């Protein structure tokens, strides 16, 4: 009996052991099998995108080059360097250069940038600010080949486009250019360049915006910074002049600027010159040795809702300045006119006009539709070549003042007659108007941004030629009612409602 009980106990224990071995062995086998199985397959769409990135990078990278420039500056030991590390601080070009500048009588300055070979005979597109005033330009290819003393064909500061020429015996790789007009917001793009000297770096992103205008510090004089492609593809110092490429492997832009707080690296705000514009500039440089931009000769201001209400319009831009002897001046365009269309194309921003006019040839005619005194008017303007220095005098509509009179405060503003002495003192080129002498703190004018030294040129419908005109205008406007004021600060004029 006891033997039977022991037998049963032994049988149960054996079954438990066998079951455990089988179960545990199964777990081990399952783990081994799992380790040996293939990982999950990524979605086909991602694999396709990855392959596109690989193909584009392989195709275009050989045509993107590293540009090193040298410039020798002779100066005395008591002469402070101008092109130091802070020269571009606060501009879109901050940190796009690296300078080496021992302080002695012969100072060598070097900079790094990128470029794109765009033809089999060795023409290279880059930025004007990369090669401008350089004594020597060296180019290093993707494969390490060095070309010394590369020829500078020319550059155009207004568009920030420069052209170089590599003279080589062996065939050169080159990139195909596309059509930047076909780009759409959200399109995938790659930025290829040499950030911080790291050759042929590739970053990916999308087109964040088109027709973007950048604010540039007055006096910078390094391009207009309008009608740019904005991308979140990482662009850093050294990318300047490199390629922005679509997924077809076509160059659609030339990388030109970044906006970065405190002079840091990329924060996803990179900007490129559309390749259609760059090609136009390059062709003119190669053919003529210079670029002839179309010129209308006006200062412009975006139409805010407040200004729209005062001028009785719902679209367009405001003419804030008309330059003397310019095409606009000869046609009769006036400050306060609202431009609503050019050649039947709607105008919603100053960059719209620049995109049309800048690429017109001298002698081309354009039809400008304006609103003046709330009435439509059509004008035919003959485009002229833009002055080389972009500096022209404003329209002279009155006589120089011959007295200095402090006026009573109006909306927190006190003014003086714009005499020759005051013009010299403030460096003002205006021939008419009154100058803001003082702005009361906390007043309507102060809150609107008025400052001393600005010139008031128009109040509502009154052109301000002198102090008497000013008195008449403010009397009619009154203290409480709103007034539209045309004011000039530095080089720029704008309408302000207070």
What features would you describe in this structure?
The protein has 498 residues and is of the alpha+beta class. The protein folds into three domains: 43-291, Thrombin, subunit H, CATH 2.40.10.120; 294-385, Pdz3 Domain, CATH 2.30.42; 413-497, Roll (Pdz3 Domain). Helices cover 22% and strands 31% of the residues. The chain contains ten helices and 28 strands. The protein has a seven-stranded antiparallel beta sheet with strand order 5-4-1-2-3-7-6. It has a six-stranded antiparallel β-barrel with strand order 9-10-11-14-13-12. Strands 16, 17, 18, 19, 20 and 21 form a six-stranded antiparallel beta sheet that branches. Strand 27 (484-489) and strand 28 form a beta hairpin. The radius of gyration is 32 Å and the shape is elongated. The protein starts with a helix and ends with a strand.
SSE topology:
Elements lengths: L1 H35 L7 H17 L3 E11 L31 E12 L5 E4 L1 H4 L4 E5 L5 E2 L3 E6 L4 E5 L10 E2 L10 E6 L7 E12 L15 E4 L11 E3 L4 E9 L11 E5 H14 L5 E2 L2 E5 L2 H7 L5 E6 L4 H5 L6 E5 L2 E2 L3 H8 L7 E8 L2 E8 L1 E2 L27 E5 L2 H7 L7 E6 L4 H4 L7 E5 L2 E2 L3 H11 L6 E6 L2 E6 L1
Parallel strand pairs: 8-13
Antiparallel strand pairs: 1-2, 1-4, 2-3, 3-7, 4-5, 6-7, 9-10, 9-12, 10-11, 11-14, 12-13, 13-14, 15-22, 16-17, 17-18, 18-19, 18-20, 20-21, 23-24, 24-25, 25-26, 25-27, 27-28
């Amino acid at each position: 009996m006891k033997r039977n009980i022991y037998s049963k106990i032994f049988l149960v224990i054996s079954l438990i052991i066998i079951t455990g071995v089988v179960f545990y062995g199964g777990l081990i086998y399952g783990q081994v099998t799992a380790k040996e199985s293939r990982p999950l397959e990524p979605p086909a769409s991602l694999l396709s995108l990855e392959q596109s990135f690989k193909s584009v990078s392989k195709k275009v990278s050989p045509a993107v080059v590293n540009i090193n420039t040298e410039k020798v500056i002779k100066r005395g030991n008591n002469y402070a360097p101008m092109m130091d590390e802070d020269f571009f601080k606060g501009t879109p070009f901050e940190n796009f250069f690296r300078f080496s500048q021992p302080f002695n009588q012969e100072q060598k300055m070097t900079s790094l940038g990128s470029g794109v070979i765009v033809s089999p005979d060795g023409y290279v597109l880059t930025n004007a600010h990369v090669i401008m005033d350089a004594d020597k330009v060296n180019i290093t290819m993707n494969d390490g080949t060095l070309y010394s003393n590369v020829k500078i064909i020319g550059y155009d500061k207004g568009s920030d486009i420069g052209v170089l020429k590599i003279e080589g015996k062996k065939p050169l790789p080159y990139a195909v250019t596309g059509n930047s007009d076909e780009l759409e917001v959200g399109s995938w793009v790659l930025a290829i360049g040499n950030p911080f000297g790291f050759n042929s770096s590739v970053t990916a992103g999308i087109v964040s915006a088109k027709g973007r205008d950048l604010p540039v510090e007055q006096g910078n004089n390094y391009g207009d910074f309008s009608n740019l492609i904005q991308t979140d593809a990482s662009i850093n110092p050294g990318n300047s002049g490199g390629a922005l490429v679509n997924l077809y492997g076509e160059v659609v832009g030339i990388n030109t600027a970044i906006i970065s707080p405190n002079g840091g690296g990329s924060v996803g705000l990179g900007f490129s010159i559309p390749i259609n514009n760059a090609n136009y500039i390059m062709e003119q440089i190669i053919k003529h040795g210079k670029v002839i931009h179309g010129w209308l000769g006006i200062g412009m201001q975006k139409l805010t809702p407040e200004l729209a209400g005062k001028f009785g319009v719902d679209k367009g831009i405001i003419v804030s300045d008309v330059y003397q002897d310019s095409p606009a001046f000869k046609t009769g365009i006036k400050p306060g006119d609202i431009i609503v269309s050019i050649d039947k194309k709607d105008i919603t921003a100053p960059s719209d006009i620049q995109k049309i006019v800048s690429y017109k040839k001298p002698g081309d005619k354009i039809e400008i539709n304006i609103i003046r005194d709330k009435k439509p008017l059509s004008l035919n303007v003959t485009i002229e070549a833009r002055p080389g220095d972009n500096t022209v005098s404003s329209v002279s509509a009155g006589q120089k003042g011959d007295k200095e009179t402090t006026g009573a405060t109006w909306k927190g503003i006190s003014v003086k007659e714009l005499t020759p002495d005051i013009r010299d003192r403030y460096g003002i080129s205006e021939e008419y108007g009154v100058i803001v002498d003082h702005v009361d703190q906390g007043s309507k004018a102060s809150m609107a941004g008025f400052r001393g030294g600005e010139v008031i040129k128009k109040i509502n419908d009154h052109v301000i030629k002198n102090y008497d005109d000013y008195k008449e205008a403010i009397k009619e406007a009154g203290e409480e009612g709103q007034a539209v004021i045309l004011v000039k600060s530095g080089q720029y004029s704008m309408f302000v409602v207070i």
